Amino acid sequence: MIKVLFVCLGNICRSPMAEGIFRDVIEKAGLEREVMVDSAGTHGYHIGEPPDPRAQSTTARHGISIVDLRGRQVEAEDLKSFDYVLAMDDENLANLRRLPGSARVRLFLEFACATSTREVPDPYYGGPGGFDRVYDLLEDAAQGLLAEIRQRLRDAKPT
Ligand code: 4NP
Fold first, then answer.
1. pLDDT < 70 positions in the chain
2. Would you tell me which of 39, 68, 73, 119 could form a disulfide with 6, CB atoms 3.0–4.6 Å apart?
């Protein structure tokens, strides 16, 4: 099982959107038995809360429901148990790097093909257009991550 964790600040906007989008990508690829997807926030402001309504409506327009997700805070144990810990921006990355065992932490947009943007911008205090921009960036990087995981599963197969 390959385990993927998306991390942002509050776990109510970017990382639950990433979780929903990537789960959809994995299901469409028929890999749900091989890949597990989760998300968390570096801060504990929104523990137990559903995603922001703007995040929910943005993914819903693309046929993806994230209503059942609930905010949780990232734990040091996550850095041991997840194969990919993918931060949305440099601040999340810096927060994660303060935890022990953070060698495998990376920026999610490293996997994006259609943009040279490094960070998924925080949409929390902006208008609804910010969530569409976030969606497009996440969808792009999700396709790149799927390609990487497919390759990894091929490499792992006994010949
Ligand atoms: P997220 O967005 O990190 O993408 O979930 C935010 C959510 C909440 C806050 C900031 C960003 N906040 O300050 O409460």
1. 159
2. 39
